[in-house]
Amino acid sequence: MTRRALSAALLALLLACLALPARAAGLVRAGAVADEHHITLELAGPLAAGWDWPGNVAVTERESPDIPLAVTGVEVSPDRTELTLALAEPVAEQGAYRVALRQVDVGGVRSDVERFLVRKGVLATLLSIVISAALIQNFVFSRYLGLCIFFGASGRKETAIGMGFSFGLVMTLSAAFVWAMYNFVLRPLHLEFLQVLTFVGIIAIFVQLLDTVLRKVNPFLFKKLGVYLVLITTNCIILAVPLILVGNAYNLWESLALAIGSAVGFALALFLMACVRERLELADVPEVFRGLPIAFLAAGLFALAFLGFSGMSF
Amino acid sequence: MRAGEEAVKEFLKIAANLLAICLVAAGLLGVIFIHTEAARLRNEEARLTTSMRRYLPQGVQADFSPIHRYLVEEEGQEPGVGYLLPTRAGHALLVLDPEGGIMHQAEVTAPLDSEAEREEAMAHVLPGARLHFADTYILALGPDGRRLASFISGRTTGFKTWVKLLVALGPDNGVLGLEVLEHEEDPGLGAEIEQEYFRNQFTGRTLEELAHLGVVKLPLPDDYRRCLERSRWAERGLDAAKAHEMCAGYAHEDIHAITGATISSRRVTQGVKRLAGAFVRRMDMVQAAAAKAGLEPAF
Amino acid sequence: MSTERSYTLLERLGNGLVKENPIFKLALSMCPAVAMTNTVRNGFLLGLAVLFVQVASNVTVSILRRGIHERIRIPAYIIIIATWVSVSDMGLAAYAPGFYKEIALYVKLIVVFAIIISRLEVFASRNPVLPSLYDGLGMGLGFMFGLMLVGCFREFLGAGTLWGFEILPFKPFFFWSLPPAGFFAIGLIMALFIWLERKFNAWRTKR
User: Fold this and answer.
1) DSSP string for residues in C74-129
2) B76 shares a domain with B42
3) Does residue B135 sit in the same domain as residue B163?
4) Are residues B167 and B95 in the same domain?
5) Which of B233, B247, C33, C113 could disulfide-link C29, Cβ–Cβ 3.0 to 4.6 Å?
6) pLDDT by residue (tens digit) across C18-29?
């Protein structure tokens, strides 16, 4: 009872840490990139009247504090607690921008220079990684990875769900370990060239673990999954995710987000395909196309549909 | 008891077997790594130098001087921009604030050939500061010290992830050319930014023009394409003069976007504008600051 | 225990190219066949890397087949494949950086290609070195042949070129250059193979 309560409390604390946006102690409470040409700032109080913006607003990219971005206008909301800065050049949602407001009077407090770093919150970044890995850059339909297992396990809906679930489990655990291994062992010792070897090793160990655990805990599911469990080791996606998180230098949370997103995307792809293939079995397919060829054509149609997500950013 | 012992012995034998294989594999990889890493770095440098030489006048001996730019963040201070410059005496580190004022200056005598050596030398001069590598400017200097060309490498967001660009500017800061070093765009669509018919549209633009350059979703006229594909001038019977005659009218148009890859085209154009503009601004600041600091830059 | 059959080079080549073609018959390792076949050259380069890893792994496992304990054979195979993949990755990066950039992610993924580990399990662990070498060659070449066939189809229809050489001055059907077209191409070619096989079998039984 106490153990459960303790773990629940820990989880709540963790979530709270993640959820709390970077609340600045200053006059600007929050900021975000609204769209390609606008940045919005939320002030801690109402802005005093008579503030002239030309010459008192400076926006720079975080990596280039010496190149000011041209501000073409500043709009103040009716209640005077929100500012919208209009910029001449496009700004990226994933970018970080330093905003400096000079000679401002907010809620009675005067400040010569008020600085704020506008960037995407932690939760928002993680969410965008999950959605990107699941839909926009779906590993099966947009990156064309994991196809052998995809065609093998998408015959029936139940197998698809079981496969998706075990894949998610292995993926998340492996991602965490791979991140730790790479950042605490391989990089400090300059052994990056061993990455393929170690990643595959870690994945193989986790698959073995899952195999043994499942055998004891849920023999029914184990029987259903059968050979697919071993096949997870030879799945392109399971190695691609560690390679990507290492290549993009993700931190631990971002790596987990990528793993979860990829698992969700893979499960979604499997499920959709299973639905279609079950129907196809009852359809009148020409003899030479029966089985795999028609499945490939169906996958191609899905891939075309997913092309529609391409380029979206969340 | 006996069976347990047997099982343990068996397990140890298996584990030893696996460990032996792992160690041999790791050892083999280590040996190959040592051999190939040197070759890899040399090849990368050679490729960069070859692509840079294409923009220099033929037969002129050129010296490539790199300027490395870093973001310097110190406690309680404004973030500054640090430049590792080549000087007549060797190298110098100059840290400027956003307006161009000098925050730190120091002569650096340590070797600066690799990334690690550079970071070490800088950490020595600026203890406790957080350094973040930004980009590198390579200046090609002629035998008399005159600037022949400047090469700016930087990255910009592409349609997929990043696109690494190399922009070549002439001595008057007009665009000599654009190279795409790395990208992850879709083949046949965004990957077309590597093609001459896209990249060469930037060649010959002045800095003024670049600042106002836009992207239009119009198809590329056939004769313009033929002028742009410089590597095929010979087989098409064109040369610099004829191409100029044929396409003088197109030279000041906006960039024609790649069919099916408007976003990639727009983002690369933005990137080129930003990189070139930032470079010119920064070189002015660096030269002014270096003069004030009494450093003699080698460019 | 090796079988009584004698495996010759020609027999293994025929096996790999047609009878048990990894892509069209065994339907293994299709990720690169879909993603990397927009041009013939990409298919060729990746096929070359796979050929090298397949042959090297086949030979290594065949040499070590008595030394690898039965219980750990899968992890051992994976380690051996991973080693050879890392070798080819480093080799390509060092000596052919232009090619390497185009196929970088897929070279690292060769480790998880089912075709390689399946050949080790099915053939190399039970046969002497020379037949394993032939088998590796056969399967690797079959894989390369498959990739290049799809590549030819897609590059010609999609871009009007073959290996970068312009055959048609226009793009007949650009759809085939798009990434999803890989699925359609493989589906159609697979169906073609099945049809050809049926015709061949029918012709043989008629004789």
Assistant:
1) HHHHHHHHHHHHHHHHHHHHHH-HHHHHHHHHHHHHGGG-HHHHHHIIIIITTS-H
2) no
3) yes
4) yes
5) C113
6) 777 777 777 777
Query: What ipTM was predicted for this assembly?
Result: 0.83
Chain B residues in contact with C67 (beta carbon < 8 A): 17
Domain that residue B46 falls in? 1-53
Q: What percent of chain C has pLDDT over 70?
A: 97
* C93 shares contact with chain A (CB less than 8 Å): no
B chain contacts of residue C83, beta-carbon cutoff 8 Å: 25, 28-29
Query: Can you tell me the distance from the alpha carbon of B264 to that of B268, in angstroms, rounded to the nearest whole number?
Result: 6
CB-count exposure of residue A5 (10 Å: 0-12, 13-18, 19+): exposed
* Chain B contact for A288 (CB, 8 A cutoff): no
Q: Do A193 and B29 touch (CB under 8 A)?
A: yes
Answer whether B188 sits within 8 Å of C87, measured CB to CB: no
Residue boundaries of the structural domains of chain A: 23-120, 123-309
Closest partner residue to B25 (CB to CB) among C68, C79, C159 is: C79
Tell me, yes or no, whether B123 and B5 share the same domain. no
pTM of the model: 0.80
Which of A246, A266, A265 shows the shortest CA–CA distance to A175?
Answer: A246
* Dihedral (CA of A249, A251, A254, A256) sign: positive
| CATH fold of the domain at A23-120 | Immunoglobulin-like (2.60.40)
Predicted confidence (pLDDT) per residue in A43-82, tens digit: 888 888 888 888 889 899 888 888 888 899 888 888 888 8
Q: Are B80 and B93 in contact (CB under 8 A)?
A: no
